[in-house]
Design goal:
single chain, alpha/beta, eight-stranded mixed beta sheet, five-stranded mixed beta sheet, 32% helix, globular, Carboh/pur_kinase_PfkB_CS
């Protein structure tokens, strides 16, 4: 039985070419995909705006059996990053409004919430959630999984490392030499497991000083949005259920493959009014 809670960001990803938007955000994606990967109980705590996009995110969470009852509500618009498509077919973020509740407010975790959170097996947080100040008190009651995304500055990583049990990075922009140096620096930290994705190359995982390489299978890719988040979710659920690191990587990969074969972070398209 695995119980995961995600605390932090929620957005809708706006696909300009299709005039559709999809519920998402790192923490929401991880929560939903953890439930799909077999976690028995999944909760999410975030800040919702009061617009139709926030309502759609909540609808999707309810459909996926992810509890969000302890979330906050604010007057304002939801985060809505805009996504365009390149000539090569890759989706890229091209901006979005900056006056959203995601930008204007942050979560301060209360004692009552800490008492609720401590009953889970892991708390997932992302770099997009502005939760750095909350990590010390969270880490006292629960193991933390943190997604750094592309923030690989060692000063920032070392500042947060003492509070983390799991850490995940996107290192596609690092050169081979920079990546080797980064991996060696990560090995020296106290983080139990580190995952490093590299774009379309196999991800690397570090556990007990040993580096494991993901095995990729050829699949028909529809959309890579949220694939890294579902890799994290599948890995965590498998690892926390007692599977060895090798199997947890396989299970995380299977979770990511499923995400790559649908549009959006986990589906639920809705018409975008431009």
């Amino acid at each position: 039985m695995v119980k995961l809670i995600a605390v932090g960001d929620n957005v809708v990803d706006c696909y300009l070419d299709k005039e559709l938007y999809f519920p998402g955000g790192n923490c929401v994606n991880v929560a939903v995909n953890a439930k799909r990967a077999g976690a028995e109980e999944v909760s999410y705590i975030g800040i919702f705006g009061n617009d139709d996009k926030a309502e759609h995110i909540q609808y999707a969470l309810a459909e996926e059996k992810v509890d969000y009852a302890k979330s906050r509500y604010a007057i304002g618009k939801s985060g809505q990053p805009q996504v365009s498509i390149t000539e090569q077919g890759d989706r890229i973020f091209v901006g979005g409004p900056k006056d959203t509740v995601q930008h204007r407010f942050k979560i301060n975790v209360t004692i009552e919430e800490l008492n609720f959170i401590k009953d889970f097996d892991v708390c997932h947080v992302s770099v997009y959630s502005s939760m750095e100040s909350e990590l010390p008190k969270l880490s006292k009651v629960i193991p933390i999984a943190y997604d750094f995304s592309s923030r690989t500055e060692l000063a920032y990583v070392k500042e947060l490392a003492p509070y983390l049990t799991y850490a995940f990075f996107s290192a596609a922009d690092l050169s081979p030499a920079e990546l080797d140096e980064f991996i060696e620096a990560l090995k020296a930290l106290s983080i139990k497991v580190v995952g490093v994705t590299r774009g379309d190359r196999p991800a690397l995982f570090i556990h007990d000083g040993k580096v494991y390489e993901q095995v990729l299978r050829p699949i028909q890719v529809v959309d890579t949005m949220g694939a890294g988040d579902s890799l994290i979710a599948g890995f965590l659920v498998s690892h926390l259920s007692g599977q060895p690191i090798e199997q947890a990587i396989v299970d995380g990969t299977l979770s990511a493959e499923k995400t790559c074969q649908i549009e959006g972070g986990f589906g639920y398209p809705k018409l975008l009014k431009l």
